[in-house]
Amino acid sequence: MIYCEKPVPTFSHHALGTALLFGAAWSRVSEPLLRPALGNHGLGFFTHRFIMTNVFLVMLATLDWRTRGRLYRATAIGAGVIVVCEAGVTWIYHKDWWLMTADAILRHFPGP
Amino acid sequence: MGIVTRSRTARQFERDIFLAFFALGLMGVVLGFVPPSWTRFNGQAEYPAPLALQIHAGLFLGWTALMAAQIAFIRQGHTVFHRRLGLIGACMIPAMAISSVFAETWSERFAALHHPGGQRFLIVPIFSLSLFLVFTTVGLLLRKNSATHKRLIFLERDAMRLNRITL
Predict the structure, then answer these.
(1) Is B123 in Cβ contact with A92 (below 8 Å)?
(2) Of A55, A98, A108, B107, which sits most exposed with the smallest number of CB within 10 A?
């Protein structure tokens, strides 16, 4: 028996093209929107990063769904790892112990 | 016996999307790096770039060019060239990782001197570099599974793209 995937409908191209444009626009628009409200490297910075990451992950998931009907394992695990890491970075960044740890690490490297 | 074939339309669609992802990433590089690079070339940078930072910039620019060539080779059906160039890419990864460590720590030490507390940002490149190493290494190990390979390389691009998002 031969299984053939159904042809990809044209509107998928349009949907993904729209998502690409949205990602590009968001990357430029969210910066001036979030920065004055939440401060440099504050939650605005991390919100911006988080949304930008997820726009691309959603696009990859959409691609999987359109071409295969479900997520590839690599997409599911990889996207999960990136999202967890982003949340971890945001949490660690705001901890006082991290400032001391960063100082300790940087002392071992050359610099000004 | 079941034979699974993928329609040409679906395969072409997937390739178009990966090309679009790459184009968007390239746009991020241009928007993120051209203004500070322009400032640096005009001699108005906050600090002179150490050798590690220059090597780091050169290698990552080369990596972006390599990605463009790899996508072009696959789209044209030149898988042999794609595999050969992939070997060069694999050799670049350790150099990129080492140069990143020294370039980022140099920059964070500068930040610590001039913007106290700015060294907190070190956690961002630590995670980005870790994700870069994980996704590229696993992606290369699983290169025979093309769908998984290209998704892992895409995820690497996504993780590294985060490093360019700095307000």
Answers:
(1) yes
(2) A108
Which residues from chain B sit within 8 angstroms of residue A72, using beta carbons? 147-148, 151
Q: String of b and e for A56-90 (b: at least 16 CB within 10 Å)? A: bbebbbebbebbeeebbebbeebbebbeebbeebb
| Range of lowest pLDDT (A59-73, B6-20, B153-167) | B153-167
pLDDT digits (tens, 9 = 90+) for B92-141: 999 999 999 999 999 889 888 888 888 888 998 999 899 999 999 999 99
Cβ-defined contact of B7 to A6 (cutoff 8 Å):
yes
Of B10, B120, B121, the CB nearest to A67: B10
Highest mean pLDDT among A45-49, A75-79, B15-19: A75-79
CB contact under 8 A, B105 and A111: yes
Residue A89 lies in a domain: yes
Touching check for A46 and chain B: CB below 8 Å?
A: no
Complex ipTM above 0.85?
no
- Which run of H or of E encompasses B4? strand B3-5
As for how many domains chain A has, the answer is 1
Report the candidate in B10, B65, B165, B121 with the shortest Cα–Cα distance to residue A55.
B165
Closest CA to A94 of A45, A32, A36: A45
Best mutation site among A45, A94, A109 for testing chain B: the one with the most B CBs within 10 Å? A109
Q: Is position A4 within any domain?
A: no
